[in-house]
């Protein structure tokens, strides 16, 4: 497997990741990367124009999905019961279907606080969506 990871700044890597996700994910209409540490959308590419407040809400919603208070409590209970002292998170991928779209959220492998977001038409083959997105995320690592 060839890696698409580039030897640029983190910002360059994020922008390249978003472009690759948009190109490689089937039926993709938008892609982005959210930094869970700051709750900010680092980069995005979409076929439509969206108001900035909607994009800000996407970053906040991603943070809630992965690190909301209740989610963190569930993870803490599982870690305690299993005797795990790691800072890694249990929730790695989340698929959300809306009326017309399918949204896939995947944590990056090397940086657990960075989440890739891919939005596709609802008619997408979900298996292919997972396969292609996982491949791209694995190649970039971040």
Chain-wise SSE layout:
Blueprint: H1 10-24, E1 28-35, E2 40-46, H2 52-67, H3 69-82, E3 93-97, E4 101-107, E5 114-121, H4 126-140
Antiparallel strand pairs: 1-2, 1-5, 3-4, 4-5
Helix pairs in contact: 1-4, 2-3
Name of the CATH superfamily: Dynein light chain 2a, cytoplasmic
Question: How would you characterize the largest beta sheet?
Answer: 5 strands, antiparallel
What percent of residues adopt helix (DSSP H or I)?
40-55%
Strand order of the largest sheet: 2-1-5-4-3
In what range is the share of β-strand residues? 15-25%
Question: What is the H/E string?
Answer: HEEHHEEEH
For the residues shown, what is the average pLDDT? 89
Which structural class best describes the helix and strand composition? alpha+beta
Please tell me about this protein's structure:
By secondary structure, this protein is α+β, with helices and mostly antiparallel strands. 42% of the residues lie in helices and 25% in strands. A hairpin with a 3-residue loop joins strand 3 and strand 4 (101-107). Helix 2 runs parallel beside helix 3 (69-82). The chain is globular. The two termini are 16 Å apart.
Looking at this protein, list some descriptive labels.
142 residues, Beta-Lactamase, alpha+beta, 5 strands, globular, five-stranded antiparallel sheet, 4 helices
In short:
It is built from four helices and five strands, in the order αββααβββα. It is of the alpha+beta class.
């Amino acid at each position: 497997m060839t890696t698409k990871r580039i030897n640029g700044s983190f910002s360059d890597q994020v922008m390249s990741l978003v472009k690759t996700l948009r190109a490689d994910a089937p039926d993709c209409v938008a892609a982005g990367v959210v930094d869970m540490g700051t709750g900010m959308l680092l980069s995005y590419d979409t076929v439509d124009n969206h108001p900035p407040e909607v994009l800000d809400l996407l970053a906040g919603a991603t943070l809630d999905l992965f690190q909301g208070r209740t989610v963190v409590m569930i993870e803490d209970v599982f870690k305690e019961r299993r005797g795990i002292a790691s800072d890694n998170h249990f929730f790695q991928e989340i698929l959300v279907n809306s009326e017309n779209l399918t949204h896939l959220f995947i944590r990056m492998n090397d940086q657990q606080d960075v989440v890739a977001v891919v939005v596709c038409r609802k008619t997408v083959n979900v298996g292919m969506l997972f396969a292609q997105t996982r491949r791209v995320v694995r190649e970039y690592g971040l």
